[in-house]
Amino acid sequence: MKAIDADLDKINWPAKGEIDISNAVMSYREGLEPSIKNLTFNVQPGMKVGIVGRTGSGKSSILQTLFRLVDLTEGNVKIDGVDLTTIGLHQLRKNIAFIP
Question: Is residue 99 part of a domain?
Answer without folding.
Answer: no
